[in-house]
Specification:
The complex is a heterodimer.
Chain A: H1 4-17, E1 22-30, E2 35-42, H2 49-54, H3 71-80, E3 85-91, E4 95-103, H4 115-125, E5 130-138, E6 144-150, H5 151-158, H6 166-181
Parallel strand pairs in A: 1-5
Antiparallel strand pairs in A: 1-2, 2-4, 3-4, 5-6
Helix pairs in contact in A: 1-3, 1-4, 4-6
Chain B: H1 4-23, E1 30-35, H2 38-42, H3 45-59, E2 64-69, E3 81-85, E4 91-93, H4 98-110
Parallel strand pairs in B: 1-2
Antiparallel strand pairs in B: 1-3, 3-4
The chains are: A alpha+beta, B alpha+beta.
Chain lengths: 189, 122
């Protein structure tokens, strides 16, 4: 995986496979604390403490159901290479929360990548899921800006019109792109 | 972020989409599925997916459902994409990069002829 945004997409698949109804994905770039943090929280079937421990092992997989593959260990490794950290909390029947923290300025930190495309493709591919996406950027002086996309309003307006109708796609893509572009921190001189 | 203004816009967008759908005779449901397991994503499946969505937008292609699936056990053939048109059998494609995806969208999804070179024998 070359981008953190691709890892996000990958672990979101786990949440979908766990039959989540609500999935929340948060991206935080905090330049003041030199932190890049991504979190994914779902209300899927969750895991026992024992399983939650085992998914960190690259050689553990539930092949028949493909609930978890190599994705989690790869992401964990990517965070550790930057001196960051990784945590996974899960409870059977309640859901799972995954948090990956990177040192923002670390030379080995992979690029965040195309967060907007990750948001858009998840949103339209799994219309049955209630998605909340947030992307927060905090500059060196602590001033922050955020983009929040809660698909509730969108879906209530659309009714049974598909998210992959061309007009709707154009609208969604535009909204996400504009929202994310407006976050770019002003260069500090 | 979606302020009132953009929700208003979305309502208009929805009406446009509905109006167009009523004009067209229903050709039967078209489904495009992109495999997005860890193997698929690492092989570039998000680019494949993006290409499909861009094609729909650029060609104003109505009535196509785009979904994802996990690993289907052919990791070496990723990115994998499947097309189902109406009641006909599912066609599975392998090594579908962004360009191949656009070709499949045009030739198969829009014009009904599978792109034989990339069909996987399953």
């Amino acid at each position: 995986m070359r981008e953190i945004a691709l890892h996000l997409m990958d672990i979101a698949e786990n949440s979908v496979a766990a039959e989540s109804r609500n999935i929340r994905m948060d991206v935080l770039e905090d330049l003041q604390s030199d932190l890049l943090k991504v979190t994914l929280e779902d209300d899927g079937r969750g895991m026992s403490a024992e399983t939650a421990q085992r998914v960190l092992d690259p050689f553990y997989t539930t092949r028949t159901t493909r609930k978890v593959g190599l994705g989690i260990p790869l992401l964990k490794l990517a965070t550790e290479q930057t001196g960051g950290g990784f945590s996974l909390e899960s409870e059977s029947g309640k859901g799972t929360k995954v948090e990956a923290r990177f040192s923002h300025s670390h030379i080995d930190r992979m690029p965040l990548g195309d967060v907007g495309t990750t948001f858009l493709t998840l949103l339209v591919s799994y219309p049955q899921i209630h998605w909340v996406f947030t992307y927060q950027v905090k500059d060196r002086h602590g001033a922050w800006n955020e983009f929040i996309l809660d698909d509730d309003e969108i879906k209530s307006v659309l009714g049974d019109t598909s998210l992959t109708e061309p007009e709707v796609l154009r609208f969604l893509r535009g909204m996400i792109e504009e929202g994310i572009e407006s976050l770019v921190p002003q260069p500090v001189l | 972020m979606p302020a009132i203004k953009s929700l208003e816009e979305l309502k208009r967008v929805r009406e446009e989409a509905l109006a167009k759908k009523q004009l067209k005779a229903a050709p039967g449901q078209i489904q495009v599925i992109v495999a997005m397991g860890t193997c698929g994503i690492a092989a570039g499946a998000r680019g494949t997916m993006k290409s499909v969505l861009n094609y729909i937008e650029a060609q104003n292609l109505s009535g196509v459902t785009v979904t994802q699936t996990g690993c289907i056990g052919k990791c070496e053939q990723e990115p994998i994409m499947q097309v189902i048109i109406g009641d006909s059998a599912k066609v599975t494609y392998g090594k579908v990069n962004a360009e191949v995806a656009a070709q499949i969208m045009k030739q198969h999804v829009q014009n009904g002829t599978p792109v034989k070179d990339y069909v996987l024998p399953l």
